[in-house]
Amino acid sequence: MLKNDEIETVSYDYDEIRNMIPVRYKHSHKGDYGKVLLIGGHDNTVGACIMCARTILKSGAGLLTIMSYTETVRTAHEVLPEAMTITMNPEIIESQLSELNMDNYSLIVFGPGAGRNEITEKLLVYVLKQDRDVILDADGLYYLKKHIDLLNRSKTTVITPHLGEYKRVFEYDQDKILSDLTALSEKYPTLITVLKGVNTLIAYQGHITVNRTGNNALAKGGSGDVLCGLTGGLFAQKPDVSSVIAAVYIHSLAADYWVREHSSYSLLASDLIEQIDKILFEMQNE
Asked: Which domains does the chain have, with CATH numbers?
C-alpha cells in the first residue's frame, strides 16, 4: 500500500505527538476549547453517535451540541447529560436548518450513525456550505461523490474514510495511493484526508503522514466513531492538521495500551475512550 518511491512520507513518535496536543491554560473557560455541533445518529445507530459524542467531550472540547433524531436525543439525555441537544424532525428539516445559528459553533462533526437517506444528503450539502470547519465520517461520506465540488471551500474539511468509503468517493489504485492522495490534497488545499487502515495515511497540502501505532484489536465496530470523536475533540481546541495527526496516533496507541493487559479479541470501542484518557494524562504530565 505504501509503494511509491517518488512520494516522501513522514511519521511521528510519542514525544513529537505529545507536543502536538492542544494546550490547556490555567486561566480559561469552556468557550476557549471549541463549540462542537455533532450531527449523527439514527434509530438503529444511536451508539455510533453517542460514542463519538462522549469522545469529543472526554478529549477536551468545551461545548457539545448533538443534533439528531428522537431516539438518539433521548439516549443522550440519559447517558451524556453534559451535551446539549437539538431534536431533528424530518418533516421540517429545512426550516430547522435555516434557524440554526452557526455563531454558536466553531466546528461541525457530521456522519456517525446518520443513516443513508434523503435527509443525510441534505445535511451533507448544508454542512459543507457553512463557513465552519467540518469533519465528515461514516454516513456523512456516503453522498460525497455527488457533491464533491463542495470540497472547494475556505474552511478546513477533514474526511475519515476506511478503504471501502474512500473507493466509493474517489478512484483507487493500490499502487498509486500515495500519489493519488497527494494530488487530492493539492486539488483541495483545505481538505485533510485520513485514510484508515493498517498504517493510516493523513494527506494535507501535498504532504503524507503515515501512522505507525495500532494493532488488529481496532478491527471492531465503533472504533471509527471513537476516532471521529477524538479528532473532533482535539481539532475543536486546536484547528490544525497537527490535531488530526495526534488524534490518529493516540487512537491507535490506545489499542496498543489495551493489549498490554488484555487480548486483542476483547477490545470494545468504548474501552478505547478510557485508554485515550490514560494517554492524554501521561502526555499532559510528562
From this structure: 9-285 (3.40.1190.20)
